[in-house]
Design goal:
Layout (H helix, E strand, L loop, with lengths): L5 H5 L2 H13 L7 H10 L6 H35 L5 H19 L7 H50 L7 H15 L6
Helix pairs in contact: 3-4, 5-6
């Protein structure tokens, strides 16, 4: 969506950004239509109060809305990180990017939408989701294997503990088990 007000049409993107930031830095009560006209006049642009109103209600309002949403997103990211729920900066960035794509699609004239650009962005996000799911599965598998390994170590430790503290009536069968376990640990194979 292009702005049709005089200021947005007369200034380059960089100049417009500087102009908007200058206005945004003014205290709220000083951001009047007259102040917008004066700031524009400083750049050699003569506008009427109606043009200043058009600028305020379109270009400048959009800028203020972006600032408000950015502030909300910053608060959300901070809350996610402080909650310890596993949300990362990448998760928050993904959410912001999704919202930006959605907003961009809504804001543009359907004839002006660059389908390839949006398709590429969405495709990359989906690919990232698939890769993330794969990594989560690998992590879960690794954690499962670690639990199994720890259970085996615990079981072997318990068996060894039993063998260290024999019963009073230590039988030949018990002695054979001890010797077999020591042989297994030392890697000694039985002679056939």
């Amino acid at each position: 969506m292009s702005d049709r007000n005089t200021i947005a049409q007369e200034l380059s993107v960089e100049e417009l950004d500087t102009f908007i930031c200058g206005l945004a830095s003014l205290p709220g009560k000083e951001r009047t239509l007259k102040a917008i006209c004066e700031q524009a006049a400083n750049l050699g642009i003569t506008i009427s109060l109606m043009s200043a109103k058009s600028f305020r209600d379109t270009t400048f309002a959009t800028h203020l809305e972006r600032l408000r949403r950015a502030s909300e997103k910053a608060e959300q990211i901070k809350a996610i990180q402080q909650s310890g729920t596993g949300g990362t900066l990448a998760d928050a960035a993904g959410a912001i990017l999704s919202e930006a794509i959605y907003d961009g699609l809504l804001a543009e004239d359907p004839k002006d939408i660059d389908i390839e650009k949006y398709s590429l962005a969405i495709s990359r996000m989906r690919k990232g989701d698939v890769e993330l799911a794969g990594l989560r599965l690998k992590l879960e598998e690794g954690e499962r294997r670690e639990r199994e390994r720890e259970a085996k170590i615990k079981a072997a430790s318990d068996e060894m503990e039993k063998l260290r503290h024999p019963k009073k009536d230590f039988s030949d069968e018990d002695r054979i088990k001890v010797v077999a376990e020591v042989d297994r640990i030392l890697g000694i194979k039985k002679k056939k």
